[in-house]
Amino acid sequence: MKSIILIAPPAAGKGTQAKLIASKYKLPHISVGDLIRASLNDDSAVNKLIKEQMQSGKLVDDDIIIKLLKERLNKEDCSNGYILDGFPRNINQAKIYDQMLEEINREIGHVILLEVSKDITKNRIIGRRSCSKCGSVYNVLFEDTKPQKNNLCDKCNLSLIIRDDDNEQAFEKRYQTYLKETEPIVKFYKDKGILNVIDSSVSPDYTFEQIEAVINEVNND
Ligand code: AMP
User: Which of 29, 43, 52, 135 is the most core-located residue (most Cβ within 10 A)?
Assistant: First the structure.
């Protein structure tokens, strides 16, 4: 098993799928957004700038991302492969990652693009709520994923929270950032012949079935 790269517009289900793959294939799930959030442990000027960049839907500087990622990939649990959720997000990161792998004589395993329309992803983002205690995620705009009681976690009965960058303005910015910065890496991996395009508009289960087919097919080669 090698590494898996997940590329997707905001709220296409990247995090959900990364968790499912991690659990089935026993691979560490590396969410670069979470790595950044975990590194913001004081109110220094640099951290304030990073928070602003995240809240406004811009990308955080490549140097910061590469440093955090290298530290994470050096950990023992990554030696048999891992899932990258949110990296690379632009061509420069994709090229740096290629060099990093070349230096340690490794290859990318699968690159998976989750495809879904802008309207669907927008509603997924602006309706998203989560429980700060158990991490359960809901969407107040969809009947099947609404909490049973208004804005309360079904399991913990605590008020649900909205992530800082889950608002319509930030969504638009994140979406534009995706089109401008991240979509070019789709072509980059397509030209290398390692891109797999998956329909992520139906349901998490259906998306995961297609991902499993990609992973199993390549592993059986
Ligand atoms: P995510 O949790 O993947 O939605 O990421 C949340 C935010 O973290 C993004 O909108 C960016 O501001 C930042 N971020 C995450 N991954 C990267 C990356 N690879 N490069 C630059 N910024 C990133």
Answer: 29
